[in-house]
Every structure is written in C-alpha cells, then in structure tokens.
Amino acid sequence: MTKQMSQPPLIARLLSRRRELSRIEKEQIFARVVAEVAPSRWRSRTAWLTASLGVAVAAGVLLMAWPSRPASDDAFTARGGNVQPAFRIHCIIAAQEAPCRSGAKLVFEVWPGAATYFAAFARRDDGAVIWYFPDQPTGVSKDLRSLVHGILDTGIIVGPEHQPGSYEITGVFSPQPIDRAAIRAIAGSPPTNLTSLVKRRMIIE
Amino acid sequence: MLAPLSWLVGDHHCVAADCHPAVKPVQKHTVRVAMTVPSDPESSVSIATSEPAALDRDRALLDAFRRGEREALGQVYFDHVDAVAKLVRHGFFLASHGLRVPGASQLDIEHELVQEVFVRAFAERARNGYDGLRPYRPYLLRIAKNLMIDRQRARGHAIAVVPDAAELDAADLATATDTEDELHWQRLTAATSDYVAGLDAEMRSVVRLRFEEERSQQEVAEVLHVSRRRVRTLEQRAQVGLRRHLKRLKLRIDSP
Fold it and tell me: I need a surface site. Which of B56, B163, B203, B233 has the fewest CB within 10 A?
C-alpha cells in the first residue's frame, strides 16, 4: 500500500529539529502496520458479514447494498483521530476469503482516521477505470458512518468489467462528500490537508 | 469494555453473537507458543535499550496487545519505534564477525524496514507467542537486524568487513555521517529556525507541540483549546510554508 505524503518526510523532521522519524511519519507507518496485521479482526467479523451478503444484479459494476447501520462505538475505529486513514480489500467467495476472480465479492475494510467520506476506483494497467464509490455518475463518496466493524456496508461483485490483470485501487478520504469530478481532480493533484489518498494493488485472476 | 453491537437482522434487533446464525463468538484462549527468537550473537551491540514500563510488566497491556487491540498496539509501537528507527537508520556492527551492516540510505527504505519490523512483531502469531517475561525491545531489534541483513544479501551487497573490529562501536556508527551531508543539514536547520521564528504564536505552538514534542493531534488540540481539524490544518500549513521557504532559498530537501 502506498500513501501519498502531504509533504516530504524531511520537512517534518526539520520542524522536529532532528533527523530521526518524525511523529507524523510514525503515525503513518503505524496505520500501515495495523492495516497489515488486522486479519484476526477480519476473521471474527467476516463470518456474519459474508453470510448475510445479497447479490444485486445490474449492468456494469454490480453492487451489494447492505442495510445501513447507525454509527456505533466501534473498537476498530481510530481513537483520537490522530491516525492516518487506510483501507484494505478482501475478496470473498462462498463466505471465505479467496483470490480475486470473477464472481467474487470485493469488500472494503476501512480505517477512517479523521475522515468522514470515502471514495474508491480501480485502474487497470491499460488505464481503464472502474468506479466503486460513487457507483453512479451523479453520486458522491460513501459516508463512513455506515461502517460496521470497520467494514463498508456496500461490496462489489467482480463482474466482466474486471478482466484478469493487475489493478491499482485508489481510496480517497475526505471530510465532505465529493463527486466523481472532484475525485478525479484530487487523484491527479498533490494531496491537501483535507484529503488523503491511499492506494492498494489488486490482482484479478 | 464496549457495549455489544446491535443491528437489525431481518425484522428484529439482535445482539452480536446471540442471534445471527453465522456469528461465532470469538474464541478466547491463551496461546502459549514458544517464541522463536531470532539468534543474535551481537547482544553486546547496543542501541539505547532503556525499557519503558510496558509489555513485560503490565498484564492488562499484555492481554490487550495479544488481542490485537489498536490502543495497545499503539502504545507498544510508540514505546519502541524510536529505538527501531535509530537502528534502521544508523545500521549496526557485528562485532564477532567484524562486519558492518549499513543503515537505510533512503527515507522510503527506512519507512519500509520500520514498518516490516512491526508488521512481523505485531502479527497474530507473534503477539500470542510473546511470553510477557522477556524485555520486548531486544526482540524487536533482533527482527530489525535480521531484516537489514537479509535486505543487504538480497540486493547482492556484501556486508562490509571492518578491518579493525576492536576500534568500532555502535556510537561510531550512530554519528558517522558524510561531511557534506552534515553541512547541508545544518543549512537546512538554520533556515528552518528562521522560518519558525517568523511564524505567528499559534503556528509556533503547533510546531513546538506537534513536531518538537511529538504530541498527537488530539493532544495538541486539547492544549491549545482548538479543534483537531484546526491542528491538522496548521500542521499542514507549517510544512507547506517551510517547503516554500526552503525552495526560495534554493535548498534541496531530497535527502535527510
């Protein structure tokens, strides 16, 4: 997973008056560590989540809508808001985590940090873009208050638009809902103090 | 202890693990697995090893750490990350072999190594395998050393042989820097001091608290009686401003 840093790490170190890791760098590393070591948390939640998944058939990208839940005191959301946002994707087949391939369900596990909204799209190596959130041209990013145990309440069915290959999935975290035009602009520009970009790689078999 | 999560399943409310057939209560059990401690013949090579009061003396923290609770992971991480980062940055010396393992030459490698140390140490099996008896920091440092050695070998780089092993110690490794690099750093820090001196009081406070004192955004917000978002805004603004200041002075910032 790569994270676009707002500024070069050296700037934070200079402000810290030392050449070692700055607090900001430590926090960013910690967020990535937690994202990597989370599997046990994932397994305790995925059983009921995947068992309850329904499938909505539609043209293009197929989405599953889970009932929206009220925000709860989720132990897995960041405390104090001082951790950078992050996300992971999981591919589910028959209620089990599996390699990503046609028919699998993409589920997003999200650590929002201080962000309130999340958008995501996938870009194939040939440049083709597949929109996840918002799923409609007129839609806006997902409200992260719909997270349940850190899992986004909407998943993605891997359909024919996901040809086998390598994909870069970009997640855009923001304090306000944003539309696709804004997401494109953010993804193509240096990040600001209000938005965060997080990228992950996915292989469709 | 969190209140049970309740959600709407079908037409009724259920409490987590009580009514949904797919929910399986998380099995809680103590796993005692012999921790595989990477061999470390260089136990005499020292980085600062003062151990904060933590994992091997705080049972509640240990239990939370083993469960993978984020706050516990965070506490352990921040207790030890400086020591790991220092080792990664400066390298170390294999006294018995007369070999020098260099530190990370670039910031992204430094980040990558630090991250990998904690990913390995915080993996579920490793967390459950820690017996809570031995000091935790040496374990982390051994992981770091092995990673650094493996990296050197994987890149086809020989580990430098130090001709006179008896003359070197870790202190030399920690302070040995290229002269030009040191001079550049001094120029950068002088420019930074000038920049900070020109900031308004609120920004200077954020710089001091957030960067110099390494407080979290929430802590800074509480001290300054502002919102956490305000702290984040000022933090970002301070960095952008410094970067522009250095650019005006034509000082490069592409290396530590």
Answer: B163
Nearest to B44 by CA among B5, B93, B112: B93
Residues of chain A with pLDDT below 70 are 1-6, 39-84, 148-149, 190-193
CA–CA distance, B121 with B3 (Å, rounded to integer): 30
Query: What are A32-41's pLDDT values in tens digits?
Result: 999 888 754 5
Count of alpha carbons within 13 angstroms of residue A148, beta-carbon side: 23
Adjacent-strand bridge partners of A174? A117
Cβ of residue A52 closer than 8 Å to a chain B Cβ: yes
Report pTM: 0.55
Coil, helix or strand for B140? helix
Count, residues in chain A: 205
Q: Which residues of A touch B77 (CB under 8 A)?
A: 26, 30, 33
Each residue's pLDDT tens digit, B27-84: 333 333 333 334 443 433 334 444 555 787 788 899 899 989 999 999 999 999 999 9
ipTM field = 0.74
Work out the angle at residue B221's Cα, subtended by the Cα atoms of residues B219 and B225, and round it to the nearest 5 degrees. 125
For A164, counting Cβ atoms within 10 Å of its Cβ (0-12 exposed, 13-18 middle, 19+ buried), the class is: exposed
Q: What Cα–Cα distance (Å) separates residue B56 from each residue in A17, B82, B133?
A: 32, 18, 5
Nearest to A34 among B73, B229, B240 (CB): B73
